[in-house]
Amino acid sequence: MSDHDQAPQGRALGNVFGAHERPLSGDRPAAEGGPEMLQVITPEGERIPNPELDPLLEHLTDADLRGFYRDLVLIRRFDAEATALQRQGELGLWASLLGQEAAQVGAGRAMRAQDFAFPTYREHGVAWCRGVDPVNLLGMFRGVNHGGWDPNEKNFHLYTIIIGAQTLHATGYAMGVQRDGAVGTGDPDRDTAVMAFLGDGATSQGDVSEALVFSGVNNSPVVFFCQNNQWAISEPNEKQTRAPLWHRARGFGFPGIRVDGNDVLAVYAVTRRALDAARDGQGPTFIEAFTYRMGAHTTSDDPTKYRVSAEVEVWKLRDPIERFKRWLEHAGHADRAFFDAVADESDALGADVRARCLAMPDPDGSEMFTHVYAEEHPVMVAELAEFTAYQRSFEGVH
Ligand SMILES: Cc1ncc(C[n+]2csc(CCOP(=O)(O)OP(=O)(O)O)c2C)c(N)n1
Ligand SMILES: [Mg+2]
């Protein structure tokens, strides 16, 4: 029996765009992403014709393209402001997305309103695309709430710190979508796909393997979007895998693909295609967005302890925003006035985020027990009573 025969009602295995099959030997992850990595805009800002991806990009207007640029710049500005707020003691911690803007904006903009995203703790760009107010992303990092937004409002789940856990949540949600009959009806406003975001390091978690098994055998409408930023805190790719991550999908019976995660158009195209397939009832896809974490893992981390600065310098030349700007300018999709306006808007966003972050009220300590369970729970009642008694013990003490 061939691999193809084993695929449940699905597509040919290998790659959503056809054959990118190579033998495993000698196919170790390459620093440049390897020949199988899909790309339409080079780091130098040149547009490469791609017969597989171009049809998925044809509908984009100049306004759409400028919108991608605006997203990239604003989310980078927001991220820089959050890092500064942490350094000034206004946030306890921050996980920067620096360098991963194109992967997140490309994926986020490929989603439809009814689709649902399950993020890690670094998906600020996806949150932005879903319409989550960026200030709300800061609440948990400031310690004033446990989440900061209603997941059902924008179909964007709360940040998940437990590595890989959200891939199971996404898979369960996608199986629910199937049971609701919201797959393969042909109604573009009804058919629903789910995005599970994960990092390269997360692929070593058992939870992720379980999610891949369940989504594969159930042919569920889920797209696993793995941002391979080359590092899991201080652990490099080589400590996580002997094979390119996108190859892993094959073992679970569905297609995998590697895309240049610093190329917003290529990411948008492959994600759109995978989401369309999922909504259509063709099952999951694993996308490896090959990118790079330009900053520290979080503000608590010092990457100079474990990686050489030369590596960072190489990746600066592959910056996702610079290449897109160069192409937009060169191809005449945007002019100087537009770039200046975005720069002004980004400064205004930074100032607004800062002001609203500082204005976030400190909650009463007892609130930490409020949303642990949807309904009253005896353990929470007991812990709240203990906490309240403890607080009272300070009354009158100077
Ligand atoms: C189950 C679990 N184990 C360990 C950790 C500690 N931890 C936090 S982030 C991280 C690395 C994750 O790396 P990756 O999946 O590549 O995501 P990235 O941070 O690079 O975006 C680890 C091990 C955790 N949060 N959860
Ligand atoms: Mg990583």
Structure overview:
The chain has 398 residues and is α/β, with parallel strands linked by helices. It has 2 domains: 3-358, 3-Layer(aba) Sandwich (Rossmann fold), CATH 3.40.50.970; 368-398. The chain contains 14 helices and 7 strands. The protein has helices at 3-6, 62-87, 101-110, 124-130, 134-142, 151-154, 165-179, 206-218, 248-252, 264-279, 309-316, 320-330, 336-358, 378-392, and strands at 116-118, 194-199, 222-228, 231-232, 235-236, 256-260, 285-290. A hairpin with a 2-residue loop joins β4 and β5 (235-236). α2 (62-87) packs across α3, α3 runs parallel beside α4 (124-130) and α5 (134-142) runs parallel beside α13 (336-358). The N and C termini lie far apart (78 Å). Mean pLDDT is 92; it is low at 1-10 and 12-30. The protein binds thiamine diphosphate and magnesium ion. The site of magnesium ion (MG) has 6 residues, from β4.
* Sheet of most strands: 5 strands, parallel
Oligomer: single chain
| Lateral strand order in the biggest sheet | 1-2-3-7-6
CATH class of the largest domain: Alpha Beta
**Helix content range of the residues, please?**
40-55%
- Strand percent estimate: 5-15%
Ions, cofactors and other ligands present here are: thiamine diphosphate, magnesium ion
Strand tally is 7
Mean pLDDT: 92
Structural class of the helices, strands and pairings?
alpha/beta
User: Whole-Å distance between the termini?
Assistant: 78 Å
Q: What is the overall number of helices? A: 14
| Secondary-structure arrangement, i.e. CATH architecture of the largest domain | 3-Layer(aba) Sandwich
| CATH topology term of the largest domain | Rossmann fold
What's the shape? globular
Q: What's the number of structural domains?
A: 2
Any idea what the CATH superfamily of the largest domain is called?
A: Thiamin diphosphate (ThDP)-binding fold, Pyr/PP domains
